[in-house]
Amino acid sequence: MKHFPAVLAIILLMAVPACRNGFLADNVRFADSQLRILLDKCDEGDTVRVPASFIDGEVTFVPIDDWVSGFFAGSLWYMYELTGDGFWKEHAKAHTERIDSIKYLKWHHDVGFMIYDSFGNGYRLTGDPAYREVLLEAARSLSTRFRPAAGILQSWDADSGWRKERGWRCPVIIDNMMNLEILFNATKETGDSSFYKIAVSHADKTLQNHFREDASSYHVVDYDPDTGEIRGKYTFQGCDDSSAWARGQSWGLYGFTMAYSYTKEAKYLDQAERIAEFLLNHPSLPADGVPYWDYDAPGIPDTYRDASAAAIMASALYQLSELDGNKEYRKEADRIMTTLASPSFRSEPGEGGGFLLQHSVGHLPAGGYVDVPLTYSDYYFLEALVRKQSRRL
Ligand code: GLY
Q: Can you tell me whether residue 6 is helix, strand or coil?
């Protein structure tokens, strides 16, 4: 019966279409036709490929150990949740099971993201016990990255390549808050508190060390893994070490909102609200609610916006509003969603390779994925639609 609410939501969505507002119905219809186009490009014969973006007229694909590999499967699960159509379930299963072996991935922190977005949503909607096992294995893999002296999960290995060249030893990025959900979930499923303790330790250290006075966050904090001392604070994807890289701020907002939902620790809720206030009142946030790629980017307003940061922020604000009862956050989320669903950001029907949103920024300083569709923008846009329609407020 644990999965009853999700099943009930699907049945209700199917049975009472008249209850859905025009915005939701329009965007679900749009997503339904777009994602069929993208699916056609991903699935060729027996090959199930993982889409990342649409660049120069071509869908680009990534290997399954890329950090974005769980998002498309997750989007397909959200389509199943939003429509109740078995077509989406069938494809969601295929794309989810395609990345099964990622549960053993231990060389970067994103195993949490990858498996939770795909298998986590699949388990929530189907209760498949095999998916539960994958979630637990992935939580065990992620736990191997816990560094007890520093009390954090190490994001990236730093013993070779450019991380070593930068002199880092134990880099932790704000994005890593997102990986904690798979650990909270593992304790909920098994009663084994070791996962929960790691997640809480990581969240506490992030709260202590990643934020500035104004609630903006550094992107990277490098720790000494032997002593736990902080070796430095930097950026990787933002415009400089002291700036507020937009997606990083959204990860922090989402991460602390999610951490509060599992722990009910007031300090996490307080932090999520402080981040929300910082972002929503930021002088460089445009009136339509979609931020520039960095809140401190040079050249504002003549620079790129980031639809991914906006979609993550909208989804987080819906959840925050549910948790703290502040309807203003829902209104702000609605404002962002209205902008994302407008012709300024939404793909023209049939265009964009089947991606839903245009104008995201992956890694501007490195020149990667600039002003293009991104699979995670679409994932959080769909998640925000699910949260918008299921709100209690
Ligand atoms: N977690 C990687 C990124 O947000 O680009």
A: helix
